[in-house]
Amino acid sequence: MTEDVQVIFTPSGKRGRVARGTRVLAAARKLGVDLDSVCGGRGVCSKCQCTPSFGDFPKLGLHVEPGAVSPINAVEERYDRIRGLKPGRRLGCQTEILDDVVIDVPPESQVHKQVVRKAASERVMEMDPATRPVYVEVAEPDMHRPEGDLQRLSQALEKQWQIKGVRADLDVLRILQPALRKADWKVTVAIHDAGDGPRVTGIFPGVREVPLYGLAIDLGSTTIAGHLVALDDGRVLASAGVMNPQIRFGEDLMSRVSYVMMNPGGDQEMTNAVRDAMGDLARQLAEEAKVETGEIVEAVVVCNPVMHHLLLGIDPVELGQAPFALATSESLEFAAREIGIEASAGARAYILPLIAGHVGADAAAVALSEAPQKRDDLSLIVDVGTNAEIILGNKQRVLACSSPTGPAFEGAQISSGQRAAPGAIERIEIDPETKEPRFKIIGNEHWSTDPEFGTPRITGICGSGIIEAVAEMRMAGIVDTSGLIGSAEQVGTPRCEPNGRTHEYVIYDGGEEGPRITVTQGDIRAIQLAKSALYAGARLLMDEMGVDTVDRVVLAGAFGAHISPKHAMVLGMIPDAPLDRVTSAGNAAGTGAHMALCSVKARREIEAQVHQITKVETAIEPRFQEHFVAANALPHATAPFPELRKIAPLPEVSFNTGGSGEDGGRRRRRRG
Amino acid sequence: MTEDVQVIFTPSGKRGRVARGTRVLAAARKLGVDLDSVCGGRGVCSKCQCTPSFGDFPKLGLHVEPGAVSPINAVEERYDRIRGLKPGRRLGCQTEILDDVVIDVPPESQVHKQVVRKAASERVMEMDPATRPVYVEVAEPDMHRPEGDLQRLSQALEKQWQIKGVRADLDVLRILQPALRKADWKVTVAIHDAGDGPRVTGIFPGVREVPLYGLAIDLGSTTIAGHLVALDDGRVLASAGVMNPQIRFGEDLMSRVSYVMMNPGGDQEMTNAVRDAMGDLARQLAEEAKVETGEIVEAVVVCNPVMHHLLLGIDPVELGQAPFALATSESLEFAAREIGIEASAGARAYILPLIAGHVGADAAAVALSEAPQKRDDLSLIVDVGTNAEIILGNKQRVLACSSPTGPAFEGAQISSGQRAAPGAIERIEIDPETKEPRFKIIGNEHWSTDPEFGTPRITGICGSGIIEAVAEMRMAGIVDTSGLIGSAEQVGTPRCEPNGRTHEYVIYDGGEEGPRITVTQGDIRAIQLAKSALYAGARLLMDEMGVDTVDRVVLAGAFGAHISPKHAMVLGMIPDAPLDRVTSAGNAAGTGAHMALCSVKARREIEAQVHQITKVETAIEPRFQEHFVAANALPHATAPFPELRKIAPLPEVSFNTGGSGEDGGRRRRRRG
């Protein structure tokens, strides 16, 4: 036997020679094999688990003897007794290589692993986190050696982990001394390095056996949705949403920009409000996941440009007027506390790049998660929200725009509208013959007509519910192509009741105890405005791309997963397409935030990608207005929607009496 | 004539060939010659002034024809008319090189110039500032190009100045949009680069013709002294001091640390107090120099470790107990606003490294300005303050310690003590025969016995005044070697009046209108405690160095310049030395801060130097106590002080009656 032995790691295939007696973890480090470790080889964290393989490996040209590695030692025995080791598994930091050997590194022992996440899309999540935990033992201070605690920590990181020149901001310096002393100088340090050098972003006592956590936040105009994510494998431990408290300053983006213009200091009020909400969200997520906010070491935020500026404390006034100049369009990293997030001392926040003055980091996140630029077919991705982001593209070219749909799709500005919460109507069907409805509410799996439905409290209609309600009314002939609700006589149901000079359709009447849930003419108008804006934006991109159809449509957005593709198409929210090519991507912006949180590589990818996206400006494009007007009809005044007509009845009714009623002469003044 | 011509720059001697017609500024940049420019060659800032030389230059091997440079052009004519150009001077950005030429760059046109400052030491100030102003013209936003304002600024800096990858923190992003628009996209940007890459730290409209400003701050336990400095040539435009408001939490450092220990949250109270004072100081300096605080783009702070931690918001409790561990000992840079300094958005603050737990950035600053490590002779540098820093060293070795002298030297804890302000007695002489005093007060150049003295308001005694008073009392035989004040009979003057069981010496009696200014026995004791601590610290370093004498003594400190070396030696504040080898360096810590403000090179120098300084810990050294006790006598119980005896009478009086009077048996219990 020679003094050097050969070791081959699978699945990487990395191989090399090491001195006999070298431990597997040390061999992996020497050969650049991705084998995790938090404790630095002290046999406590168990992250370096691996499986030595024995026998013949003809493809690798190797025969491995049973004694090629040292026998299980006391540390491993103890670990197995307390925590359990899978059969064949060894701790890499305890196992010595005694002869030529093949060692398999299972996915969970890799730092840069690929993990399939149970998201709407069963997405493969690439793990390349900016932050990792490392255990260090720090030298105690000595009166005769004047270095500070930070310097001794830094020396320990260099010696024990080869992490050089670590930085710490003042927040970390503030907690450093008590943290080290309380933990008796043995700590797990969160080290953040997104390519700009290592930085301490958290200090935890002893060997940290649970992961570090991060937040992926989709800051919308109406709701702020967040996930609390484990940074070792990217799993979501808690999800929550809070209302964006800026709503009190204006429901949509432009009314908030106006508020700033009219009220000096209004930007600061809104900045404070949204930062408070970010703090609330962080606390809520931590509580739900049963972790401390101090265990959150990183956050990734996506949002539209106005939210971006207001979150960062930048006056958004320039975004309210042409040429819609951003203060900065590139990604940013800063201390998480600067945007109100309660997390570890030193925790960092990353915000994705913006595509343009109207197309934000949320759209960039959608581009990251849906990646139309990697596909041959032409994808139309619609992120539905108060401000909709629309992306159209394929491998050749990607276009993006935003469209001010307003908050109707989120249940706001709707007479019986409400947030998606238990008691809200989320599904509805109307019998085309009887015009009678049945519905489902959130928190109850039965239709309202089933005996099992019981007598739950019914509170209102949420965003997906109102979309279905209007579409079903259209298919049942209760609403005509112009959006007008017919009278009881015209439609043939007493559920169409007069309401002033128009009519409303009664979905549910709770009697004296209430509530009475109806779809009013005003509700239809609000939905028409919103869906016209959405359609017009998509159509503008199609013009720019020079196409009349798309290969697939992806509905994204915080409640994108809840929208029925068929109903969306009946409304004409999206261009006509075969129904099986209309899918939902769930909260694609949130997914993009989640991906960026788990992977520095993903951040670099989208930072490069945004420069390749052509931004189309809806606000100054005359054709937008034309498309908008033509899109007011249900589903559309001119577009034929052949695919839709194959699957949905669209009765040719008309309730316009030509008289003085609502809407008498307001529609279709122009054609696109 | 060839197409290339030779150009030689003096005094650098840098030479090379450039294309005929190249402008001098461009030639200088090409050849790496240090020729300043703010406007980037637009003929408005005049920083690039230079003098073409004509005739024979045998040493350079060159003959320069009169037509070697282009004639004065319209831009230069206009500049000369409005601002005036010295004879022979040209604007380097306007002057074309037409033939072989020698061009002299005067010191004021160099960025990295050496400037002799009128400080106590006529110091040569090396200019190598971290921040420089650059004028850029930024592209306006274009709806069809989505980059943000920061990206267009960054592109302009790269194109016009070859400054790549400039960073801007959120504070700068907040002001960027209005600043660019108000200035019509033509701005002078303060670019900070201390070796870690360029960063925007200020934005000013148009071509900035006045310099950028910085603050050099010496944060003492009792007073905070600051200079407002022009960053082009390092001159001081304003100096001011404010009291450290932390005094209300404790007069000396240890009582402040105790305050924190006794009062949870007390550190935050003190942090807030000192940051408020930093803000006040910045505003006061700006007002005095008639500049806006927003024109201050940088600050350098020196201070002792406890002040350091409290300023940064770090609990100083570890500094109150062995082993006196610092949270961090290295230099730090961060946003100036983090420590309460009102300055430009993005302004940076730099804090010098600390030498050890008791020997701070102020001592490092003294080491920087006095540089004992560059001298052959052995220097003892004493920075007098509430906490004294003492440095002993030469080229071979440098030692440092700190000593808790208390605030007596600053006039605190003295019965008639006051801050150095108009009306305070600062000089005093006592006739050894008549025991009659004469004195000078701040704001009046005459002795109190001169008719021209008039009848000014006399308010108290400042720090230097009390030192002189006690020393003069010792030389006049009013105080004995043990520090006891004699009675009227013992001394032979009615000015020695009884005060309880001891006596006091009346310097001035304002009658009914007051005040009555005396030196009490308690005052003498306070001075004795302070000076013993100082001497014991110095002596401890001498022991460590293995010497009994030093070659020179430098008195430093905020009022170091005001202390009379002779009187200091009579008190035994400092070890015996030839009087002409005892000098005053003024506020050496402040000078060190000033140097670090003007020069990145100086920062790197002291950062390296502190690692070479051996720290001696006074608090745990038993000999410190011995030295302290022996130093209680005036000048000393055992040290002979031969040099002092050559120049000052030290009458062998003794007022100890051995009875029940104060001090009857308290002194010299031990010998070192």
Automatic annotation (TrEMBL), chains A, B:
Gene3D superfamilies: 3.10.20.30, 3.10.20.880, Domain of unknown function (DUF4445). Pfam families: RACo_C_ter (PF14574), RACo_linker (PF17650), Raco_middle (PF17651). Residues 650-672 are annotated as: Disordered. It comes from Thioclava nitratireducens. Residues 3-109 form the 2Fe-2S ferredoxin-type domain. It comes from the Bacteria. This is Drug:proton antiporter. InterPro entries: 2Fe-2S_ferredoxin-like_sf, 2Fe-2S_ferredoxin-type, ATPase_NBD, Beta-grasp_dom_sf, Corrinoid_activation_enz, Raco-like_middle, Raco-like_middle_sf, RACo_C. The lineage of its organism: Bacteria, Pseudomonadati, Pseudomonadota, Alphaproteobacteria, Rhodobacterales.
